[in-house]
């Protein structure tokens, strides 16, 4: 928003309103502007290590409550910001909330869900993220017409979901696994009966209790993550987060208005296009909710890889032909296909890498390393989100339309990885992952078998 740029980034505002003095691709190339976005994720990266401790020792519920408090305080700082320092501090506090929330919520969902709907229920997390993005785009579209304080209203409205999240954390029940893990056996069993809707929970309770006893023998979960038998889960969790961000999705979602203005859309049209992308994001995530427990994780990821590659390759070719450094607009005949293929890319990501990047790690780690594993997952995700957020506008300036070709190359690599190294986890109970998934995989089984032989003294 121009009023926002004028208030906090006057240099960018001056460049944007100077015709033909700067490449269209470079008008927003400013490290401080990028830091406004990326500082959120750098703070979340650091906070997730503290969140790992609270998730394991204090429970999933309290961790979510802490996240909610961070969200509320961060919104207050942002909405009342008088200078850039106050703005960045608010973003850092919000980032701490993201670190705690991303640590606790996927674990919470995986642990309360019955096995047959675990995938769909967990993806509701990502669905609500996409709904939040859509609402944010709609709010930005509306407040951009309020001068000169529309940006302040836009940042302040975030207080509504922050308060709702905090209230939800107060009233939600703790997971049975967390209660049993922390020694509250009877309470854990009662909660398990309540969420399963039956008194006959002894088999599941005994499985959780057994896993909890094994987990208690692990004094250093982060160190335990490095053991050979945990190598498959750790490698897959890390690579899924790197690949998820390397699709370029956050570059498009973060900077959709900037991107469309760069391509020649007018200011209102760019925000309107961002709203369309947000709507596509929500609807496509619903596809994943309905299909992930039917067709499986691998099928969604592989299909999306083909669709994302073709979409980005076509966009790169189109922009390479029509958009120059100094062009002021993209003709109607070319603008519409750009939006269509951008939406096609977002749709494929939303029913695959978006939700599954969180679902698969949350359901594959054993209990003794689950909290630490989720912490590493969140940390890597936020690290690469920070890198993309901090670098995208500079990359856009230097690589121009080639940035889409760059991301499409990553899509090829990640699709090959899924084809060769990612096992299917559909319909497999969390406690049986080792026996039914890792020991059966052509590549990963060597890590499990070798480790067991070493424990038994055979090697």
UniProtKB/TrEMBL annotation:
CDD domains: MFS_STP (cd17361). InterPro entries: MFS_dom, MFS_STP/MST-like_plant, MFS_sugar_transport-like, MFS_trans_sf, STP/PLT_plant, Sugar/inositol_transpt, Sugar_transporter_CS. It is found in: Membrane. GO terms for molecular function: monosaccharide transmembrane transporter activity; symporter activity. Residues 1-426 form the Major facilitator superfamily (MFS) profile domain. Gene3D superfamilies: MFS general substrate transporter like domains. Keywords: Membrane, Sugar transport, Symport, Transmembrane, Transmembrane helix, Transport. It is a multi-pass membrane protein. It comes from the Eukaryota. The chain crosses the membrane at residues 32-50, 62-81, 87-109, 121-139, 151-172, 234-265, 271-292, 299-322, 334-354, 375-395, 401-422. The keyword Membrane applies. The keyword Lipid biosynthesis does not apply. One of its GO terms (cellular component) is membrane. NCBIfam families: SP. Belongs to the major facilitator superfamily. Sugar transporter (TC 2.A.1.1) family. This is Major facilitator superfamily (MFS) profile domain-containing protein. It comes from Rhynchospora breviuscula.
């Amino acid at each position: 928003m121009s009023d926002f740029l004028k208030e906090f980034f006057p240099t960018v505002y001056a460049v944007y309103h100077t015709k033909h003095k700067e490449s269209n691709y470079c008008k927003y190339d400013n490290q401080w502007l990028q830091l406004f976005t990326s500082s959120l994720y750098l703070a979340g990266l650091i906070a997730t290590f503290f969140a790992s401790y609270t998730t394991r020792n204090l429970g999933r519920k309290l961790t979510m409550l802490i996240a909610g408090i961070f969200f509320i305080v961060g919104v207050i700082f942002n909405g009342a910001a008088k200078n850039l320092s106050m703005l960045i501090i608010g973003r850092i506090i919000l980032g701490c909330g993201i670190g705690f929330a991303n640590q606790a919520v996927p674990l919470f969902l995986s642990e309360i869900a019955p096995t047959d709907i675990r995938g769909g229920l967990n993806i509701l997390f990502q669905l609500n993220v996409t709904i939040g993005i859509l609402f944010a785009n709609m709010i930005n579209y509306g407040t951009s017409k309020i001068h000169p304080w529309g940006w302040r209203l836009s940042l302040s409205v975030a207080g509504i979901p922050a308060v709702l999240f905090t209230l939800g954390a107060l009233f939600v029940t703790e997971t049975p696994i967390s209660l049993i893990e922390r020694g509250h056996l009877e309470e854990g069993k009662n909660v398990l009966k309540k969420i399963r809707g039956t008194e006959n929970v002894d088999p599941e309770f005994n499985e959780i209790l057994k896993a909890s006893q094994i987990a208690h023998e692990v004094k250093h979960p982060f160190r335990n993550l490095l053991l050979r038998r945990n190598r498959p889960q750790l490698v897959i969790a890390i690579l899924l987060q790197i690949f998820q961000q390397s699709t370029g999705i956050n570059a498009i979602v973060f900077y959709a208005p900037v991107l469309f203005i760069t391509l020649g859309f007018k200011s209102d049209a760019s925000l309107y296009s961002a709203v369309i992308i947000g709507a596509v994001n929500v609807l496509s995530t619903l596809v994943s909710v309905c299909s992930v427990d039917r067709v499986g994780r691998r099928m969604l990821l592989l299909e999306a890889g083909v669709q994302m590659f073709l979409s980005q390759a076509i966009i790169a070719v189109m922009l390479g032909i029509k958009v120059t450094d100094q062009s002021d607009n993209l003709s109607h005949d070319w603008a519409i296909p750009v939006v269509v293929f951008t939406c096609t890319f977002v749709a494929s990501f939303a029913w695959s890498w978006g939700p599954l990047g969180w679902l698969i790690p949350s359901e594959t780690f054993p209990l003794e390393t689950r909290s630490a594993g989720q912490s590493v997952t969140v940390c890597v995700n936020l690290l690469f989100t920070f890198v993309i957020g901090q670098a995208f506008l500079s990359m856009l300036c230097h690589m121009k339309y080639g940035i889409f070709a760059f991301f499409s190359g990553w899509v090829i690599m990640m699709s090959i990885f899924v084809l060769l190294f990612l096992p299917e986890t559909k319909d497999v109970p969390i406690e049986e992952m080792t026996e039914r998934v890792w020991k059966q995989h052509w590549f990963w089984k060597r890590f499990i078998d070798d480790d067991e032989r070493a424990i038994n003294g055979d090697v």
